[in-house]
Design goal:
By secondary structure, the protein is mostly loops. The protein folds into two domains: about 1-60 and about 95-100, no CATH class; about 165-413, Mannose-Binding Protein A, Chain A (Roll), CATH 3.10.100. About 15% of the residues lie in helices and about 5% in strands. It has seven helices and nine strands. It has helices at about 20-35, 150-155, 190-195, 215-225, 275, 285-290, 330; strands at about 185, 235, 260, 270, 310, 350-355, 375-380, 405, 410. The strands form three sheets. Strands 7-6-5-8 form a four-stranded mixed β-sheet, with no helix packed on it. It has a three-stranded antiparallel β-sheet with strand order 1-9-2, covered by helices on one side. Strands 3-4 form a two-stranded antiparallel ribbon. A hairpin with a 5-residue loop joins strand 3 (about 260) and strand 4 (about 270). It is globular, with a radius of gyration of 44 Å. The termini are far apart.
Amino acid sequence: MAQTATTPKPEARGWRNRRSWLTLASLVCLGACGEDSATTPPATTQTENPATTAEQGPPNQDVSMGEATDQDPQNTSTMQGNGPGAETPADSGGGAGIGAQGPAAPMAQGEGAQTPAEAPAQMGEEGPEGMPAQMPNEMPGAPEGEPGGEDEQANSEPTEVPITVEFPGKLDDWCTDQADNFSFFVTSMDALWALSASTPGDTTGGFGGDFGGLEGADAICQTIAKATGHGTQTWHAFLSATDDGEGNPVHAIERIGEGPWHDAQGRLISQDIAGLLAGDRPAGDPEAVADMVDECGVPLTATGAVHDVVTGSDKQGRLSRNDPAATCNDWTSTTAMATTTGQFGEGGVMCGHSFPRMLPDFLAGAVPAGKNWVSDHGLRGCGKGANLIQDGPGSGTCIGCSGGYGALYCFAQ
């Protein structure tokens, strides 16, 4: 028959935090462990230095950390579970056997030593206040929404410039194989006819001289650029105007940035403003400036004798005449008519040439005239329409009647 043992009552204050169930656990074990348990010596008394007290729950059961009561502020202890492989008091020289455990050996309290409360959690162990410590092989990363996180990387992608002007038509499935440095083009007839909802091939369509003001003209450039996949840059039409809204003139050359500019094929148009104004043709790639291309990289000569490009500017890129009619009422009218003279409409809306004037066959070999890309001659009117054939000055008062379709130069700023 098992022998009943009486567990001695500890006197040291270090034992005040012992939970009541430990006594019950000891009694249970005494009943099961035989007579050897009756000879278990009393637990030794813990003295001055704080120690780490290892508690043991019932066999095969983990000890849960309960809420301590009657905490002695001078006795800082860390309660540890006595799982497999843990050192028992007997192993460390203590006299307590299974079910009754004396205090663990005091920790060294020399200079620089850490108390259990100050010691950091090891890799894979539980940290202070029950917070999990960093696990091995788990690299820290920036939280989402903070610098270096996924949100910032997503936000670092360039965004498209908003377009606030709406057009009657739209561009679907446009060309998208431009060079990465694409920053200059002449608007194609197809793009202008699509945005103005004109019937393809109808030479009475287009915008005429009413682009919706400078804002609308810029939006035309921006919309076309967006359709090609280059809408993250800010694009401006090369146009001058008589009034910026405060009574001051607007000069085209001051609206386009500083350069450099390249066409859709990646060829240099000009390195800077000085190069644009260096002569009749910009100081860029000779082939690129001799026959400027549209947003898809197609030379305008492929469309026909359509070199007239509206600018309203002189050869320095500045407003040519302080007459609203000479800018189609600052690009808002298809009916404005400037007083003109001569067959090309001198004194009218100024245009430049995207390529030098084509000569009739009987003048083959002659030096081409009309080479200035900014300011070559005036146009007779601001009406809608196009003329794709070489027939001299042409006829009529449409903006394209003398050899064009009301095209614009577009520059990325």
